[in-house]
Amino acid sequence: MNLIAIINLLSLFIYIIAIFIIIKNLIRNPTYRGEGVFVLILAVIPCYVNISNVLEHGYKIDYFDEYEGFFKDLYAMFLLIFLYVHSVKKEQTQRIEHEIQIKADLKLKSKLLTEIHHRVNNNLQIISGLLAMQAESENDLKLTTSLGLIQNRILAIASVHKIIYGSPNLLYVDLNLIFNSILGNLKITYLNDKNKIELYESIEEGLEMDLDRAIPMGLILNELVSNSFRHAFMNRNYGKIEVNLGKMDEQFVLMVKDDGLGIGSDFLEGKGIGLTLVKNLVKQLRGTLVTEETNGTRFEIRFPIRNQNPIQI
């Protein structure tokens, strides 16, 4: 047996050991089987060439020699397939790692945003509490009323932040939750045993609004309803206030009306702070405000459902 045959025999022995190692790893690590099968084939094919060379140069048997070219071409083909599969798997692994990192970063940012809204709400609640304490210590009715109005506006803003940090969606908030929270605060403030004013609310289900416009919307609602409570029933202790919110022609439609005697020409002409605030907020929402005084006062506000200047992320 000459040197070529011995070298091929040693090479065959090495390939056989490699085949057993590969098979062992394939059994232990199922995730490697897709790529490992090609490695196994690449280890098996050279065995034929080694056996053919051992028989040809050691025993003068060249029967298998004519198939060596085919197996070499087959080896080259499987090598190219292996390299392609390896590169694809590597790209997939990198993509999965990037996706995991992106999800982790997004989760962290969501937690940070939630914490920010939570802290803002807490700070606004503290300010509201300080205003309430200050109002209780004052004997001036006009000052106490003004402090109460400011407190309600702060609570309206705080309500939005509270709903945001309690919601899984940090980009849009449920308008039903905002309206229920704000109207609930107004009921506590203005409804008592001394009056029989009724507040009716009708909000279409499933309405959502982006955060950029949720706070102005809450402030508009707070301002209109609180002004109806304060001004519409000056000469009596009973009445009805209606709040409706829905969609029409790609627009949100908010309607607040009461059956009182009206809220005064100063307010309607924009001389009061309340309507000035409402007009500015409606303009911010790119909406329109229509006011009617027939059997009370009626406000109708329309503005686009779609935000034309959304928050860029």
Structure write-up:
The protein has helices spanning 3-28, 33-59, 68-137, 141-165, 175-190, 211-231, 265-268, 273-284; strands at residues 172-174, 196-203, 208-210, 238-248, 251-258, 288-292, 297-304. It is of the alpha+beta class. It folds into 2 domains: 3-101; 172-313, 2-Layer Sandwich (Heat Shock Protein 90), CATH 3.30.565.10. The protein has a 5-stranded mixed sheet with strand order 2-4-5-7-6, with helices on one face. Strands 1-3 form a two-stranded antiparallel sheet. Helix 1 runs antiparallel to helix 2. The model has no long low-confidence stretch (mean pLDDT 83).
Keywords:
8 helices; Heat Shock Protein 90; 313 residues; single chain
